[in-house]
Amino acid sequence: MSGTEELLVEADRLATELDHADPPTLLDVRWRLTGPPGRDDYAAGHLPGAVFVDLDTALCGPPGPAGRHPLPDPAALQAALRAAGVRAGHPVVVYDGGDGMAAARAWWTLRWAGHRPVRLLHGGFPAWQAAGLPTSTAEPTPAAGDVEVRPGALPVLDAGEAARLAAADEGVLLDVRAAPRYRGETEPIDPVAGHVPGAVNLPAGEYVAEGRFPAADALRARFAAAGVAGGAPVGAYCGSGVTAAQAVLALHLAGRPDAALYVGSWSNWVADPSRPVATGEG
Fold first, then answer.
1. Statement: the pTM of the whole predicted model exceeds 0.70
2. What is the DSSP string of 150-202?
3. Cα 106 from chain centroid (whole Å)
4. 60 carries an active-site annotation
5. Phi (first) and psi of residue 112, to 5 degrees
6. Rounded to 5 degrees, what are φ and ψ at 107?
7. With 60 as the cut, is the pLDDT of residue 108 above it?
8. How many CB atoms within 10 Å of residue 215?
């Protein structure tokens, strides 16, 4: 199995796998930053057998100084995953409404928790529908899983580590928010506009489009243009660690499984008014 096949699965391939006697566990993690909750989408139709898991309440901790989507409590995460039927060592596939962000954060969270066999449905629910595959409104009651959450299987950055990486002569801290937010021209969500001093802006739209990733060579070229070179350290942040989890997935696809996520991201950075804020292009 290639690196891509370990991380992504296409709709037709997933449909074949779901016909097996012991199919992958499906997690529907549809989510919006604003607007109706993802559970409404799930109730209207989902992949047969999929269980809804809420990004805000099950896969992340409560918002606060640690950020709007901080790391979950390991015991609470384990309980939520077991309730969704996640079994130790058994494959999981996560999907969202198509942009790939919530699914990437779910992918990252399970990998961080030590559950390696997890893939993202490439293109999400729209890709499944576009392939003419069946959907369901039935809500399954899965048998309780036995997954063991062991935090730390993927690297994370706290604010101090993010600052040091951004200031380092070697390595790069990627800010994957839209350029106007990076430059501090606008900030629709957090109380302060700007970016971590020394961070390099690489908006998500430059390496993923409508939840679909280009080939590994194209990803490597784009990241290299942003300063990600050789084996020098690389990390990513966004507003609250959701879009940046997608950047970490893209870096995995590009051959950088060591990429770190600043989980608290900008919402954590600005929670401490003593932290410096940069604006403009640099």
1. yes
2. ---SS-EE-HHHHHHHHH-SS-EEEE-S-HHHHHTS--SSSSS-SB-TT-EE-
3. 6
4. no
5. -60, -35
6. -55, -50
7. yes
8. 11
Task: Work out the angle between the directed axes of helices 101-112 and 243-253 (0-180°, nearest 10).
Answer: 70
Identify the CA nearest to 244 among candidates 235, 253, 232. Answer: 235
167: left (phi over 0), alpha (psi -120 to 50) or beta: alpha
Considering only CA atoms, which of 255, 248, 213 is closest in space to residue 231?
Answer: 255
pLDDT digit string, tens, across residues 192-236: 999 999 999 999 999 999 999 999 999 999 999 999 988 999 999
The residue to which tokens 């779910």 are assigned: 106
List the catalytic residue out of 29, 147, 238, 248.
238
Contact 25, 110 (CB under 8 A): no
198: its two tokens: 């020394």
84-98: b (≥16 Cβ within 10 Å) or e: bbbbeebbbbbbbbb
Residue 8 burial by Cβ neighbours in a 10 Å radius (0-12, 13-18, 19+): buried
Check residue 3 and give its pLDDT: 63
